Sequence to fold (1060 residues):
Amino acid sequence: MGTGVQRTTRRQLLSAIALAGGTAALYQAMTTLGHAAETQFTGPPNLSGARKGATVLVLGAGLAGLLAAYELTKAGYKVRILEFQNRAGGRNWSLRGGDTYTELGGATQKIGFQPGNYLNPGPWRIPHHHRTLLHYCRQFGVALEPFIQFNHNTYIHSSTAFGGKPVRFKAAKADFEGNVAELLAKSINQNALDEAVTAEDRERLLEALRGWGMLDKDYRYVSSLRASAHRGYERPPGGGVNGAPIPSPLLDFHDVLDPQVWTSMSFFMGHEMQTTMFQPVGGMDMIGKAFARQVQDLITYNAKVSRIAQDRKGVEVTYTDTASNTVQTAKADWCVCTIPLSILSQIDMQVTDEMMAAIRAVPYSGQVKIGLEMRRRFWEEDDSIYGGHSFTDQEIGLISYPNNDLFGRGPAVLLGAFAREPGAYWLAGMTPEQRIEVALAQGSVIHPGAYRKEFMTGASVAWSRVPWALGCCARWSEETRKEHYQTLVAMDRRIVLAGEHASYVGCWMEGALLSSLDAITRLHKRALEA
Amino acid sequence: MGTGVQRTTRRQLLSAIALAGGTAALYQAMTTLGHAAETQFTGPPNLSGARKGATVLVLGAGLAGLLAAYELTKAGYKVRILEFQNRAGGRNWSLRGGDTYTELGGATQKIGFQPGNYLNPGPWRIPHHHRTLLHYCRQFGVALEPFIQFNHNTYIHSSTAFGGKPVRFKAAKADFEGNVAELLAKSINQNALDEAVTAEDRERLLEALRGWGMLDKDYRYVSSLRASAHRGYERPPGGGVNGAPIPSPLLDFHDVLDPQVWTSMSFFMGHEMQTTMFQPVGGMDMIGKAFARQVQDLITYNAKVSRIAQDRKGVEVTYTDTASNTVQTAKADWCVCTIPLSILSQIDMQVTDEMMAAIRAVPYSGQVKIGLEMRRRFWEEDDSIYGGHSFTDQEIGLISYPNNDLFGRGPAVLLGAFAREPGAYWLAGMTPEQRIEVALAQGSVIHPGAYRKEFMTGASVAWSRVPWALGCCARWSEETRKEHYQTLVAMDRRIVLAGEHASYVGCWMEGALLSSLDAITRLHKRALEA
Fold:
């Protein structure tokens, strides 16, 4: 068939371009041919032919470590993983009823959620373009379900707009777009943009503004059935005698310019935030558990690493078995170290001064997440909100509605806070009980009445107090990237670092996996050359 | 608790307002209090105390008829339903492998889909605010799953822009917003809007435009990592040594103004099109079947109504039992007629001239839907598209990607066309085989190569050729609404009409249900007064 021929030709062309001009030229060509790059993942690495008896020590049984162990074992290496905790998965983690969690400072929470309910303290959503993660989820049998990221019907709340009351996202978005369209149309019609835009494009733009912004025939954005079709009605269309809709009044223009409005709109256009997104059925840790199953015999749990040494022949890691409180050593030819920099910077490590400086250069963020179990899904039943997020400028940052068991009748867990600095610092300084109280008080602003009434129990994780991570994820700045990134990801003799901190997809599982694949590919190459 | 008190007070206030000022005042007050109306549904009707022995004949076992029968039976009426087809559900319909469908004109299709696959020729998605439908789905045990309505990563295709090649929705949307933001910022900075906007709001607006439109520090929208974070990268962020992203080039401004871009953006803000949306697990007809189960003993199938007569004492309907080809009559005190106007206008009916004029005044739309079963989910595997729609200005209108069994490995059914006039007229004039060929040819423009290669079998429904509907749904204009709507929904002595055509939520199941509830509520009132 004709299309088959065309396809082959394109592929041959791309191969030729890649050979001639390298990766950047290839990506350029792909985009030009209508194939924008979705990911740097090009399939699982094709590693094989490890030297007989070659060994690798992997530090950390998070996703980066587990994947490294899995692929290196397939390549023929003898692999061992040392893990500080008594479980695998690392920050890929879910808290369930019956779990106990003790944070730095000593506060212990006994989680009281009903069976089937959970809080994902770390990662909680998967973008459609995180192809590495999606690939291994499929391969390892992790069932995924949609994560409702974008929901027109959630609330926006700002303490400095709309009288401090929540408004529906759709109404704020429609009014922002309507006002922007009206103002730009006015400029065009006043000939203010005659130099910037051709006469033909001015006509096209006016038509576009009217259609996109729901302007009337005079290019005005006014309360009308037309505007209500985007922003919501005073009385929505119905059936029978009283079926006719009634238009809704517009929000105040000054309020519509509140940063909460445009930051929310911009948020949903963010690369990692765009739909479609997914979550594992049953909790995020289904992923960590599935990865761990592939290499379960290789993991030593309760191993607290205190020293990482290397010489020309190999790597020696000293660790304490925290179960027996005995100091032990492990040796290997090579080491893939996935310990978060926040922890690693405190470990005695035989690397170059430049590497040590890189490890110490990157601060960690300290998000706080709070899960609130509610007796019933009042956000669905009373507010017609099924998944998605209501944003607020209060410390809790948002309320996110569960995506599992939509329309369920039993208790469900809301994400009652996803706080970032400075709100996160404030919440981290509190006891778990105090954090719940803040979440209830601030959440009640968005869902008055039901929020406290339906509350059953809560759980919180302040990442700056997580003993085995001391933070949520690496926070690179442009400056630290420039100065330290290439050092951090480069092999330091027999040691290579991997994890979200060794990627440009920071704070995401995908970054950890892509970093891991890149690290082990280079390690394997070096091992064959050595 | 304080919030409990507050809640009661609000409710009491709303009751008082409703008593004093009626429904419109109530809606006004609810909005003011931050409770924009989501629906006209206020719960199932509380009908009871029908006169002993009172009977109702319901014509049509679509959703409106089934609900009328269900609620009137609960209210104490003796109900009978006459249905033309040999199944209930009406336009709530799914075609599956093994089904046979003969359209007007005689063309017969034997559907060849694999087990579990289906095409929903009629309704296929449920908005979150269609509370009547959601209420009864829950009550009747219909399991729902998310319908991925909004997907940033689908394609937009215009034959008059982007060289006729598909572009990602996210890229077109980002570039539209970026250009609009830059132009409006330019106007503001040239003082063109000083009279329209206060100095304070100009500053707020500039900040908003920069943040929303991803403008640089000089308020320009340029190819950059910043813009790429919304529109997609040339090379997306990755891990390890080559992790740094590469920005993508912008689309041509003239092309970004193509109507396909802004109509798509506006589409997703439409009241009925906003997220979250749902579909029944297993096919849309799960709803019709669940409704039918509630009243299954009341339905007479294969009943072709030819005459609807009434006098002061009751209603008499003449119908042909198409199975035995015998003419029969059915009598009742009252009649709820849910037959589509396209059919009803051809039936001998004893109503006022005004009602007959109303019935004949409303034309029906003739959408065409085409289902294409593909060997594998290439849109997921090759294009990272999970659900959602790619829009095109070709006759097929769109390609919509299945929302069930995401990540599945077996064959799946794409919606390969959802054509409206004039494309629908053109496709309806073809044989089913020709329609499939058009869908493949036009779909291949968006997914070259894979589309034809993976195609297995197809099915099409041209609604203008559906024997029992003669169209998809009622197309009211502002003028016909004004002249005929209230007549159409009013009781004509002992007969009341119901269905999506008797609502302002035309073409949606919710309209049929709201219309039905309104109709039977008035019928019940009249019956008690009679």
Summary: Chain A touches chain B through 132 residues (CB under 8 Å). Confidence is low (pLDDT under 50) at residues 1-34 of chain A. The first helix of chain A runs from residue 2 to 32. The longest strand of chain A covers residues 303-310.
